[in-house]
Write a structure and sequence with these properties.
Helix content: 25-40%
Order of helices and strands: HHHEEEHEHEEEEHEEEHEEHEEHEH
CATH superfamily of the largest domain: Zn peptidases
Shape: elongated
CATH topology of the largest domain: Aminopeptidase
């Protein structure tokens, strides 16, 4: 796609932060309700109905069952303009909550430990604000409530795109917001270009020849080979890849054997590769396969190396859209805007950014005084709810102002 021409922004016609403060108690209630009813990837049926019903109650046109459990709301402004999409993800994690809050998850072993409950609450809040400002609104706003972001492979963005969410009407700009447990509440983290990694999962199945633990010389020990493979994989980043290009490889699970005195036939390793550009991504996959096969062969074994299909691509923010968005975020009173370094977490919002220019950005939720000190995915993850109004205001502001901007060609 070509780089969009963007007109300089003026002073927004609506005080979006004041509007967000007006509905702040509702934002918090909504977030807590969602927090108590988490659902795992591809199972977001209650959540999907909840957000769809809320959108319809606001008078927004709603499409349900998009790409599975996805929901799309469409709000047309009073004047012609660009089509701006705003996205929130809906799924939770298989985590047992240990946070000391009185609105804990009511679902055993499932928790909104990554803040997707806050994403939905903030986007619903932005929708309410924009409905109230409809007479001042240019263009069309599409609200994406996306399932299965935590899946890590096919995810939820791709099925929604395949169901046509970026079309009819065609999306000109797209924005997504993520809560950040490591960033101070009320602070936005932004970056142009690559901002999040491609998370490529892999599975390595090592084949040896089992036998008695007292006679390893009569076997081909896959456990010993697996140990050497784990060490050898770290040599890829330290000796085989350009050190100025971020690259992380982690083996997160090792499975083999049944008893201490039996050398098994097989060992299985599962892990992840994180990269910030396609060239490094492709090279890393090739070298992982080569190193694994070489080590296994040298000890008399063999291996199968598989990478998950449909893994999320690198999340790349459009530079010009990000530049303009940062100017707008700086207009929100009381909020801080900081340029961030890229992180090696993955996001399937990346798929939306492949279809339209836009920005994925972060909003801090940490507050030491309130005990909000744990990172995303922690069982003790807590959010300073004072930050929700900034998120709702920012989403509404971006939709409103980018609706006035020229359409990318």
């Amino acid at each position: 796609m070509s780089t969009p021409f963007i007109r300089p922004c003026g002073t927004p016609a609506v005080d979006f932060l004041a509007e967000a403060k007006r509905i702040e108690p509702e934002l918090i209630r909504t977030r807590r309700t969602l927090h108590q009813h988490p659902e795992l990837s591809y199972r977001e049926t209650w959540t999907s109905k909840f957000v769809a019903d809320r959108l319809e109650a606001l008078g927004i046109s709603v499409k349900r069952g998009v790409g599975g459990n996805g929901v799309v709301g469409i709000l047309k402004g009073s004047a012609e303009g660009s089509v701006v999409a705003l996205r929130a993800d809906m799924d939770a994690l298989p985590v047992t909550e240990a946070a000391d809050v009185d609105f804990k998850s009511k679902v055993d072993g499932v928790m909104h430990a990554c803040g997707h409950d806050t994403h939905m609450a903030m986007l619903l809040g932005a929708a309410e604000i924009l409905v109230r400002a409809k007479d001042e609104l240019y263009g069309t706003v599409k609200f994406f409530f996306q399932p299965a972001e935590e899946h890590g492979g096919r995810g939820g963005a791709l099925p929604m795109i395949e169901d046509g969410v970026m079309l009819d009407p065609k999306v000109d700009y797209v924005f997504g917001l993520h809560i950040d447990g490591d960033r101070k509440a009320g602070e936005f983290g932004v970056r142009e270009g690559p901002v999040m990694a491609a998370p490529d999962s892999f599975r390595i199945r090592i084949k040896g020849r089992g036998g008695h633990g007292s006679a390893p010389h009569k076997t081909v020990d896959p456990v010993y080979i697996a140990a050497n493979v784990i060490l050898g994989l770290q040599g890829i980043s330290s000796r085989m890849m350009d050190p100025v290009r971020p690259f992380v490889i982690t083996v997160g699970s090792v499975h083999s054997g049944t008893k201490e005195n039996i050398i098994p036939d097989y060992a299985e390793l599962n892990g992840t590769i994180r990269t910030l550009d396609e060239e490094t991504r492709k090279a890393a996959k090739r070298r992982v396969a080569r190193v694994v096969e070489g080590i296994c062969r040298s000890y008399g074994g063999s291996a199968e190396v598989e990478f998950e299909r449909d893994a999320y691509p690198v999340t790349v923010n459009d530079p010009r859209a990000t530049e303009q968005a940062v100017k707008l975020l700086r207009k929100i009173r009381g909020a801080r805007v900081r340029r961030m370094e890229p992180i090696l977490g993955g996001e399937d919002f990346s798929r939306f950014l492949q279809k339209a220019p836009g920005m994925f950005y972060f909003l801090g939720a940490a507050n030491t005084a309130k005990g909000c000190v744990y990172p995303n995915h922690s069982s003790r993850f807590k959010v300073d709810e004072d930050t929700l109004k900034f998120g709702a205001a920012s989403l509404a502001l971006l939709a409103s102002e980018f609706g006035k901007m020229s359409t990318p060609k």
